[in-house]
Amino acid sequence: MLGAQPSGNSTVFVNSVALNETAFRLWNYTLYSNGTLSNGSHCFLAFGAHKPIVSGDGTVANTTSCYAPINPIEARGITGLVFGSLFALTILFSTINLRKHGRAYLPREKGWKPVGRRWPWYWTLIVAACGILSSFTAVDVDRDYIVNTSIILQCFFLTLMVPVLLACVWEAVRCWSSCHHRRLREAESSAYSANVFQNRTNFYLPLLFYAFDSLVFFMLIPRSWSFAQRQRSDMQTLESARPTALDARFKLAAVLATICLGLVIFRLAYSSRAYRAKIPMTLLVVTISIGLRIAYMLAGSWVWELSPYRREVSVGLLYGLGYTPALFILVLLNIHGYINENEDKLSIVQRALRGGELGDGLDVAMQSLQNRSRSRQNRPPAWWFRSRNPFASPSGVFKMPTASRRLPLRDTSRPVYTNRAEEQDESGYFWWQRRRREEEDARYRKPRQSANGDRAASDSTVTEGDARGIVPRLIERDSCLPPPKYQRETPSDYSQDGRLQPTSSTHSLQSPPQVVRSMLDV
């Protein structure tokens, strides 16, 4: 703090400008060593080309605010623009991968919902948003003469990236583990069964991780961030900024983040062993990158010279260990997601290779039927037990037909099954083939003889009663030619007047009709 230079006529000089000392003292203005003129409510620049004028009523003219960006962009701002642009570019690929891996191509099953595959890409979008806001605000950190809100925004979003980045890596590992669990269970459903430890691990481990990750968030974010801008002088930095940046909450958050990283590593190693799958190189590199970010967080929580909240921190250290791991993780995950295929499509290909039924899930039902003695919980659907036996009662429609069931007397009006496969046929293929064979046999089948007994090869006469008397009639020999395709026999019987009358409207394909002629036609 510097006192104004008084003169004999009650004037003071501020940056070579004579001001009224009475008005200057009345409005409590003070000239500070960094070249600013302030009264506690207003702050103006008072060096170089900035020459404020204070009038008697307290009005200040020809002034520039202390928080105006007057400096050029330096290395911190330029690097922030580059990183912010790269973070913005990752949003494009994250949305593409979100649409690719979030779509469902199979019916929803319990435990395998599409939203579980979308969470990694939700977290990547949040990380990219935090990176953009934190990087772009670094421009005003360089341009502002007095440290202001810009450094608060940069430090806030840089810190917020830590719990979000941990959740992003965790969901990437969990999604990979879940995919292998699903594929292994479908491929080895008859032999694979998760033990109790594995079930408990899959249930409690995500809860444990998110509990620690939530603690990291609450230790870091809900607090006053005004300490970051209190670096306007060396004394203010030592008294306000440094003690707050190295307090117990930041240290505890760094330790909790290390525990979260340990849970990620455990999940990665355990899933690789349990599901007999090789860990992808992408996940290994991603885990190492998040480890570097947490290591920098630990170092910055104990050493002020390495803290990302310090304004004079090295630009290479800030962006190399603070932003580069996050950007590298986003790039690797997006490349990994762009190369790999959707989980449902992989399951469809795996089922097709096994020769299973993709449409109605018959393979799952058959495997469940074979293993129902081992596990009563996985029963086939109800339609699997529906019998094709036409003689089954309505109460037994959901029971499998057995050999011990006694069939009723044979009825020619109903279809007769020749084997068990034909009896259980759902598609109607065997019925259609049997019908075609009957029609072909009916064409070339030898006609049956008349119901009156064997007749001679020559024509014979039959007398029938008529209302006018005895009329001789001639019955020709049955034709040996096959009947027309759609010609059918109508069974007949004798009526009281001696004429042949049809007895049934049911057609038969067994023999052609008889041809009856009179002797007058000979």
From TrEMBL:
The chain crosses the membrane at residues 78-98, 119-139, 151-173, 207-228, 248-270, 282-304, 316-335. Keywords: Membrane, Transmembrane, Transmembrane helix. It comes from the Eukaryota. Residues 501-513 have a biased composition (Polar residues). It holds the Pfam family DUF2434. InterPro entries: DUF2434. Residues 441-522 are annotated as: Disordered. Coiled coil: none annotated. This is Uncharacterized protein. It comes from Cladophialophora psammophila CBS 110553. The lineage of its organism: Eukaryota, Fungi, Dikarya, Ascomycota, Pezizomycotina.
